[in-house]
Design brief:
The chain is rod-shaped and about 115 Å long. The protein is 89% helix and 0% strand. The chain has 6 helices and no strands.
């Protein structure tokens, strides 16, 4: 019982240390080409180191137990295969984890860039249309002053409130239906 607990403790501790080393290594360095070859070589080396280190540690702990030492020598290949499979699984899980994080960050940066691009395009369009709209509106108001001076005063007030609203407008703020109707009626009067 004591031998099996010590064997398990030594092997699992070395395996945990190797998994932490593997996780840290893959967190900072992941080759873009030949990833599978890199993982195979790395896990083979770590599995070999763990198997040899556990053999020496267990031989040192149970130096007088020849039955256990012969069992340990017979089970080295099986231990190596089990450790290799566990480390390969750990490495693949870490690679998937870090790749998903990288992909999520890339997608987030792409969405931010797209939103900034759309916003810049809208601002550019808004800046191009506003002077043109202002000149057309002023020409319409001028024409209206000749035909109907009373309505021209109302138009100037509506134009001023429309331009004030355009300058203060935030894309995230909802505009009420009444304000929209005033804007549409103002534009309709201008086009008449």
């Amino acid at each position: 019982m004591q031998v099996s607990v010590a064997d398990s403790l030594v092997t699992n501790t070395l395996l945990a240390v190797a998994c932490i080393i593997l996780s840290n290594l893959l967190g900072y360095y992941q080759p873009k080409n030949e990833t599978i070859l890199f993982i195979l070589v790395l896990t083979l080396m770590l599995a070999l180191i763990i198997t040899i280190a556990s053999k020496f540690a267990l031989n040192f702990l149970f130096i007088d137990n020849t039955t256990y030492q012969s069992f340990l020598n017979l089970s080295l290949l099986v231990r190596f295969i089990i450790v290799f499979i566990f480390l390969a699984w750990c490495a693949l899980a870490n690679i998937l984890w870090y790749r998903l994080e990288e992909q999520s960050a890339t997608q987030e940066r792409l969405l931010t860039a797209q939103n900034l691009s759309k916003e810049a395009e809208l601002n550019k369009l808004r800046h191009q249309l506003q002077p043109h709209f202002l000149f057309n509106s002023l020409n319409s108001v001028y024409a209206l002053t000749i035909v109907n001076p009373k309505e021209a005063g109302t138009m100037i007030t509506k134009l001023a409130s429309f331009l004030r609203g355009t300058l203060k407008r935030d894309d995230e703020v909802w505009v009420s239906v009444g304000k929209r109707w005033n804007i549409f009626s103002f534009i309709w009067i201008l086009k008449r």
